[in-house]
Amino acid sequence: MRLLSNQLNDHINQSVFIEGWLHKKRLLGGLTFINLRDRKGIVQAVIKDKEQVDKLKGLQIGTVLSLRGLVVKEQRAPGGIELHDVNLEIIVPVVYEPPIEIDKPLSHKPDNLDTLFEHRAIGLRNITEAKVFLIRSELLRLIRQFLYEQDFIEIQTPKIVGNAAEGGAEVFRFDYFGKPASLAQSPQLYKQVMIGVFERVFEIGPAFRAEPSATTRHVSEVTMLDIEMAFIENHDQVLQMIETMLFQVLTKLWQEHEQLLNDLKAPPLILKPDLPRYSIQQIHKLYQEANQIDMSQEIDLTPEEERFICEYAKEHDQSEAVFATDLPKPKMKFYHMAKDNDYALSADLLFRGLELATVPQREHHYDVLIEQMKNAGIDPQDQSFKFYLEAFKHGLPPHGGCGFGIDRLVEKTLGLANIKEAILFPRDINRLAP
Amino acid sequence: MRLLSNQLNDHINQSVFIEGWLHKKRLLGGLTFINLRDRKGIVQAVIKDKEQVDKLKGLQIGTVLSLRGLVVKEQRAPGGIELHDVNLEIIVPVVYEPPIEIDKPLSHKPDNLDTLFEHRAIGLRNITEAKVFLIRSELLRLIRQFLYEQDFIEIQTPKIVGNAAEGGAEVFRFDYFGKPASLAQSPQLYKQVMIGVFERVFEIGPAFRAEPSATTRHVSEVTMLDIEMAFIENHDQVLQMIETMLFQVLTKLWQEHEQLLNDLKAPPLILKPDLPRYSIQQIHKLYQEANQIDMSQEIDLTPEEERFICEYAKEHDQSEAVFATDLPKPKMKFYHMAKDNDYALSADLLFRGLELATVPQREHHYDVLIEQMKNAGIDPQDQSFKFYLEAFKHGLPPHGGCGFGIDRLVEKTLGLANIKEAILFPRDINRLAP
Fold first, then answer.
1. B160–A220 C-beta distance less than 8 A
2. Which one of A38, A199, A387 has the shortest CB-CB distance to B120?
3. Is the pLDDT of residue B112 over 60?
4. Residues B166-185 pLDDT 10s
5. pLDDT mean over B142-149
6. Shortest CA distance to B362 belongs to which of B241, B159, B189?
7. From the CA of A388, how many Å to the nearest CA of chain B?
8. What stretch of H or E contains A238?
9. ipTM of this model?
10. Would you identify the CATH topology of the domain B2-92?
11. Dihedral of the alpha carbons of A336, A342, A346, A349, in degrees to the nearest 10
């Protein structure tokens, strides 16, 4: 039976059978050393027998093979063990040289990113690179676990929608059997009406934005975690749910995967279960005091301020995440609830300098919502909003939620330089393949 | 603190606070009876006090309210309890009559489906209707749990793709910053190359098909579970993984949610951990013997045969699911592995008369794959296939997997008549909203 590389330490001095990819091959003192890669890591094998060595003649990295051999302790080898007396069998011979070297650290410098994404499925065979996506899968597992425990149910809402519900130009449009359709920018309207049934819902799925910018922050397809919860007493209950989720998920991630995170040089986590809350006005002032730059004309936070307040909170509150509260009304969406004449009940969750989520309470009064739509220049008679308004007309309780960027969470958890490195096959204005 | 309807049985003779929606209101012998709905069910409350009754004057079903009252045993009430000495508070008044009656069973007859989907977010407030999506959420949770235990990792692949990878006319096309793009029909190519990194991957996400048919089987946006596993010894290992998943997931679903399933009148489960396997040729013969209809000209199974073999296996093998093996070569896709000159190593998983998944072994030899592409009329030089072929060129081990229809699984698990009833907001040729 096949064993995996991480199981061999329990089989010292035993004969084992392993399968994987040829990851490295070198000659040293008349011996052939090979590294075999499987999904759990690397095993080093020493081959003396000429007949065995000859089987590898002309074969390249990537060759799929099996090894039978004796597990021997060897401190200098990866994992502290080595395979001796090897009997080797080729499963899939590879005769082509790899397009990139995968047993050395890959450059993530901006000028190499295109090469990285061009050969993504090969580059990820580098065992460190692959760990980004092990962490990503685990983050999603832990998020779902938390939300199930909190009695949320998972829903799937359509990605093909009629009108672009939230408006805006950054929408991909296409023909749907003769009708104009577009790709959903978010499940906003759908998840809100579903709290009228399930009270607590979430969705993890793709969202599409025709972002015409080429930066380290912009991609046209993202993975969003959408959360919505009803029967809240106030906005702060929503913030509490989100900060608890962030804290529990990241804390468990570090407890369960410290080695993986260290291998990826992830910055150590400095976080509290209850995040500091600063109003955007307070942040403008703190930034001005620290940098002697007048921010009084800014409505929302600038990217520099987002970085600043996270550094500030790290120093003063021992937290790398912070809520920036009291969004000024000019930035408020029609479905947000107003706090007063000047501010919305909406807060941005910032983590290590980047906005992960916007976390508002929603306006749940039918009449007020209609007014806010009109004020935002949206026609409440528009057929795209019929099902949405109908749910409010027939009673939706106080509720709130967030759209939470999963790619950004992966990026910031691991300290990556570019959101695209957190995505298997990123899409941007210049990249539609692979 | 708010209690939920299913917690009240633990609070007999205690004063409690609950919140929810007015679900039903009636006068009986001078008393007002109301039903309050929350996410866990229905609570009946008896209101005597005129001042309290007056608060409901002019208010309709859907009104959001809170109740304080004494929990009293009452066998005739839902859940065996009733609320007395009620103090009622209106949270969100509703003055509009509901578009459909939600406290009575909703008709799912074909001529009522349009009304059902038109007012979907209201109709699901019927507590039986909502249970379909509780089951759906639980099915997804149990599937993920099984796959994590089997050491699969979850991936997200792009839904915006360049060329339609698998070809065919049924593709939604659109403009992507001046380049032609399309919506992914499946993660096929992406998941296959990722087994070169993680060996075992899965994805649960939307897939898009421009199906120009209006039937009970066709929708243009489905939720697919895509699974791919490497280092298999043979095709049967893939079938074993899928049949084990189906058995464990559905068995656990019945163990954990028997009441919900009975409320939905789900047909009792007749299933085995190892499914019967019949070749398509065998099924043609069995069908012919039973029905005296000559099927020898058919390549694949007809829908009638799919229903027949499931009934047949239910009777002869005590299993409502079956693998139809040995797909004839004319139906084989270029990425399937051939079994011999006549058949592909591909099997259909049929459950209660419907195909849930196609489960092939993949061709993993670079040269053979190129030949099979050419035979299928696909140009291996096409840039869309560059990353795909590159992964094979540099070594992919024997592997197989499936695309598994989640909507179909929900439909057949619950015995629904139409795939659209298993989808929150279905999309078909005539329906783009809500």
1. yes
2. A387
3. yes
4. 556 689 999 999 999 999 99
5. 98
6. B189
7. 8
8. helix A235-263
9. 0.96
10. OB fold (Dihydrolipoamide Acetyltransferase, E2P) (2.40.50)
11. 150
